[in-house]
Amino acid sequence: xxxxxxxxxxxxxxxxxxxxxxxxxxxxxxxxxxxxxxxxxxxxxxxxxxxxxxxxxxxxxxxxxxxxxxxxxxxxxxxxxxxxxxxxxxxxxxxxxxxxxxxxxxxxxxxxxxxxxxxxxxxxxxxxxxxxxxxxxxxxxxxxxxxxxxxxxxxxxxxxxxxxxxxxxxxxxxxxxxxxxxxxxxxxxxxxxxxxxxxxxxxxxxxxxxxxxxxxxxxxxxxxxxxxxxxxxxxxxxxxxxxxxxxxxxxxxxxxxxxxxxxxxxxxxxxxxxxxxxxxxxxxxxxxxxxxxxxxxxxxxxxxxxxxxxxxxxxxxxxxxxxxxxxxxxxxxxxxxxxxxxxxxxxxxxxxxxxxxxxxxxxxxxxxxxxxxxxxxxxxxxxxxxxxxxxxxxxxxxxxxxxxxxxxxxxxxxxxxxxxxxxxxxxxxxxxxxxxxxxxxxxxxxxxxxxxxxxxxxxxxxxxxxxxxxxxxxxxxxxxxxxxxxxxxxxxxxxxxxxxxxxxxxxxxxxxxxxxxxxxxxxxxxxxxxxxxxxxxxxxxxxxx
Length: 545
Fold this sequence. Notes:
Layout (H helix, E strand, L loop, with lengths): L8 H13 L8 H4 L5 E7 L4 H10 L11 E6 L10 H10 L35 H7 L3 E9 L3 H7 L8 H9 L5 E5 L19 H7 L3 E3 L2 H6 L5 E4 L19 H12 L6 E7 L1 H7 L3 H25 L2 E6 L3 E2 L2 E3 L6 H8 L6 H7 L7 H9 L6 H12 L3 H11 L3 E3 L4 E2 L3 E6 L6 H5 L3 E3 H12 L6 H5 L1 E2 L1 H5 L3 E5 L7 E6 L2 E6 L4 E4 L2 E4 L5 E3 L2 E4 L1 H4 L4
Parallel strand pairs: 1-7, 1-8, 2-14, 3-4, 3-7, 4-6, 5-6
Antiparallel strand pairs: 2-13, 8-13, 9-12, 10-11, 15-22, 16-17, 17-18, 18-19, 19-20, 21-22
C-alpha cells in the first residue's frame, strides 16, 4: 500500500483506515498485484471512429498505423440518459468509473434512463465524484494533462474539475489551476488572464499569477517548454485550441507528440510514479466540421503521440498505456467503389491545410477564393453553383461543413452527421505483463466505466472511499452546530462562510484554500458549489471542532 497521501492529519488517518478496511488499496488480490504498474498513460483520441483510422491508413499509403499492433477490443460509450454521449459524460466515465448525463463533468447523474446503471441515492444527485487523477495525486504520484484543445474543454476538465455543465468555463479553469495537477500542456490561455481583449476570464483574477505563487513555471512557447527543467509546469500555447498538426508553426507551438514527451520526462522523476492523460482533441473538432483533411491530420498526430507513450512504456518496463476514444464524431465512411488508393490520395494530397486555415486565407471580398481552394485544399473544377454555395457558407459561418464534404465527394468520403455517433470505439492497450482491460473485464467489448476500473486495479487504487472524504456535504458543518452561509458580495468569487462560537472559517468556491480565523490553510481538495449545493472535503469539515 502506498501511504504517501498528502492530506490533513485527521483526514490522512481517516483515508488510511478506510482504504485498509473497505476493499481499497490494500485489498488487491495476489493475481492482480502481479499486474500493478508504477505509471499509467491514458491517451484519448477525441472523436476517433473506426473508418477514420481506415482513412488515415490509406492516406499514408496503406501502411498500418502504430496503434494497430495494440488494438485489443471495443468500448461502449453511452451515457446515463441516451444512446449517444458527449465528451463530458464519456470523459467522466474514464476519469471516475461512473456514467453520467451528457454535459456534466465528474458528478453523479441527475437522470438515469439506460439499463444497468444505478440511480444515485437521495441527496447525492449531482454529487462530485473522485477522479483517477485526484486519487493518484493524493497517493503521492505526479499527475499531468496534455491536450490540443483549450484547457476548459470537456475531456481534460473531467479529470480535475467537477461541474453540472461543461460550459462553466470560468469555474472550471479556476478549479484546474487550484487542483494540484503537476503538468498541464495545451491551449486556452485566454481562460487564465483577465482584462485583455477577447479574454474569457471575467472575475478579475489573473490565474497565471496564482500558478507562479503556487510554484509552477508558466510557459507560452515551444522553446520555453523544451528548455525548462521545472517539475511543476503549465504551458498554454494559444488563446484557444492549438492549430492543426498539418499547419501549426513548429517554432511557436509544440505538437502533441512533443508535449507528450515533455510531460513524461517531467513526471517520471517521481519515484512514486505518475498518471498522465493525453488527449488528441481536434479529431473531434474536424469531425464536427466534416473536414477529412483535419481529421487525417489529427489522427496521424495522435498516432505519433501514442508511439511516444508506448515507446516510453516499453523502455521503462513499469508503465501501462491505454488508449480509447470517447466517441465517434461525424460518421465518416468510405464508399470508394470506383477509386483506388492512388486515385484518392492524388486528390487528398493536394490539400496542404485544413478548412479552418483555408478560410483564413480568403480575402474579405472573396476575390481569391478559387485560387486558395485549388492551391491549399485541392478543390478544383468547381462549378459556378459550387462557388456561390461556398461564398454563402463564408457569410453564414458554415465554410468547413461545405468545402469538406465537397472534397470528400471527389473520392468517396461521406459523412453521416455533424454530431457524435453511438457505435463502439477502438480499445488500444499496452501492459508490461500483457494484462489488458479486456482481460480485467473478461470481455472483448467493455463499458467505458470498465476502463477506469482497470486503471484503478493496475494502479492499486480505490476511488470509492474518496467520495466521502473529498466531497462531504456542507450539512456536516450544521451537524456540528455551525452556521453556513455563502457570501456572494462578489458574485464571480463566492465564499462559503462557516461560523461557530468565535471561529470564522472562509472557503472560497473552486479553490483548495481555507481561511480559519485569518490564517490561510492549503487543502488537498476543492470547495465546490454544484447546482446550489456546497461540497467540501472532510479535511475542511475537521477545521471546525
